[in-house]
Every structure is written in structure tokens, then in C-alpha cells.
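Possible regression after last week's pipeline update?

I re-ran a chain I had predicted before the update to compare outputs. Posting the input and the new output here so someone can diff against the archived version. Not blocking, just want to make sure nothing changed silently.
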Amino acid sequence: MGSIRIYTLDEYIYPKFRAKIVSLYLHAFTTGEYAQYIAPESAESTLDALVRRGFGKMAFIDERLVGLLLCHPLSYDKDFPAADHPRIPVANSIYISEVMVHTHERGKGIALKMISDLLMSLPDTFTDIVIRVWEKNEPALSLYRKLGFEPFYSIIQTKHRSPEETFEMKKIYLHKALIPGER
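New output (post-update):
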């Protein structure tokens, strides 16, 4: 295996990698133990909107895109219960909206590298970071807890198993205060 390289993703770089990013998104979320149905056109519009509002990190091994992290200001998360959690300053918080790693590369530290790179590169104007994860995704929950994120709230979302069949997914919000010099 080649070494893992992390690059910043923004709206200017995105068009060059869009097809690979959409492919990874569909692969990561529609296969394996945590699979759900996502229509390709929905994946494209979701990713386009996320990159327009924010930025991210891409992980490569050799020339293969194997991981992606997308984030944006927390104010863009329409589901975030700001009124119920006033200790989290929405205006100064970043929200990690997507973390995905190719199924064949999971467990190799790729998500850890992307999140660590993000934490080191965030401007000091961001004082807090929030992420949301499916309660059944124990590897992700374990990683986020290891990184100092603490669960504080949950929501239920309706997802698709197929175009016709839906299921309920409990998502857990986790929070971490960002301390300058300790990122």
C-alpha cells in the first residue's frame, strides 16, 4: 500500500475531481454494512451544494481517491437544534457533514488523518466542531470519541434501503471544543 496523502478540497479544485468524488460517495454510502440507497443524481446535487457552502479534505493512496471529508459552517445544518444547545456557538462552529472512506481502505487510519489535518488547518475563528453519525456505525463513533468528541444530542432521519423502502436511522451529534494550540 502506498502512503496516504491528504489534500484540501474547495470549490475551485472540486470540478477536477467531481466524478471521482461522486463515485466514492455512492460507493461509501450504498455498499457494505451501513448501506443505504442514494440515487446518483441526488448524490451529485448533494455534493455540489456541500462544496459550494464549505470545503473538505481528500485522501489519496497513489492516484486513487480513497477518502473524503466535507465540512461547512454549522449554521448550514438545518437539523441542528441550536436553541436547545446554547453552549455551542453556531456562528463559530464548523460542521463535518460527511466522512467517507472506500470500503477496501477502512481501518487504515484514513478518516483519522483527514480529521486531524482538518483540525490543524482550521482558522482560530472556529472555536467548536460538530459531527453527526449513525448510532450503528461503531467504528466511526469510536474514532470520534478517541479524538475528543462527546455525544450530546440525537435525531431520527428517514433513509432509503431501495427507491421504495425506507428505514429510520438514529443519528448522534457529537461536539468538540477547539482549543488553540492543541489542535
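Follow-up from reviewer: compared with the archived run. The chain is about 30% helix and 35% strand. Marking as no regression found.
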